Amino acid sequence: MKKSAFLLLSLISATMFSQKKWTLQECVNYAVQNNLQVVQSNYNQALNENSLAVAKRQYLPSVSGNINNNASFGQGRDVFGNSNRNDNFSNSANVGADILLFNHGRLEKNIRRGQLEVEAGQYDTERIKDDISLQIAQQYLSVLLNREVTRIAKSALENAEKSYQRAKITTEVGTTAQTVLAEAEAARAREKLNVSTAEINTQRSLFALAMLLQLPEYKNFDVADVNLQDDITRPLYTADQIIDKAFENQPQIKAAETRIRSAEAQTEITETAFWPTVSATAGIGSSYFYLLNSGTNPISGNKIQQANFFKQYKDNFGQQIGLSANIPIFNKGITRLNVEQSKINEDIARTSLSQQKQEVLQNVQRAQFDAESNYESYVASVEAEKSAKLALDFAEKSYNAGRATIYDLNNARNNFANAQGSVAQAKYNYIFSLKLLNFYAGIPLSL
Known about the structure:
elongated
């Protein structure tokens, strides 16, 4: 019974998955939650947060306790040089605490550095999520493009099928030559191949998107169609308008700026080694001692009496308090070299910021160039499509009137189909470059 119920649930889950069509937002949400790069970054962030928690706890005192038991056997000499048996057992127990009083703010600076590392780690995770989102958006648009190319190919196949059926009838009645039927059949075969190729490309792009999502099952994966407007306008922004906002909002820039402050905090931490460290200690403890061969009192001749365990622990109970200072005098110049190394790390962090700014600047400029050039390509493709459609209309009218051959008609249809494909390619290229440009302007990804 349980096995049957499990199989039924599995079947229902598989059916629901096969019927589901993922939107772009669902793809992005799934990726940023389950992508292994994001998971790894979250683990790194957990380590940073744990290190920060450790740094904060350094303000607390350290408390420890210990118990010692010792037994000694054999001959021993006393202060007078006499040799005697010295078989004894001793026990001691104490609890002590120590706390750091002064270290020139090292604890506070460690905490500040830890907070900066946590902040930088958050920006690293955001960047990974942004990169994945852009990859998914581009691949999602690739699926939609291939679907549109498939629709264009199917439309061309329908027209080729109509031409073939007409040529078949006219050839059978003897009004057209056999070569007309052969050319119509060849054209139909070419369009079937184009449809098959477009469908394969659609499945290939779906597979690539499923791999980006790292889905365990890709065969039933599908995405929702999006009706993208054909009334496309020029980009709203230029690189000059976007770059300052990109420098302000892009996570890789924020991470690099945060790591400069972290490197500066590390230099301050290293410089605290020039200063003394003051610590306070306090403790309580007691002890017990027992001679295994206590012997006799040389005066009275009586056996030496030894206090029991609890009495000795009560009598020997004591407290300690102390204050210590560790003053650095000379450590071979290592501290000074460590400070110089920390300052070099500051320069490395500043150079990294410059590199990140240069990368963002180039990305924005590239996105602007792509958006403008793809827009011009789209406009030109639309004009070419209109001309191809007009030529196709004339070719069909001429062919129907007997003034054009089937070769002329097929050539016009091929030109129109190619023009439609060019429009679709230019449109989707422009949409992605525009979304990328808007992304740097702070506008979230959407279709």
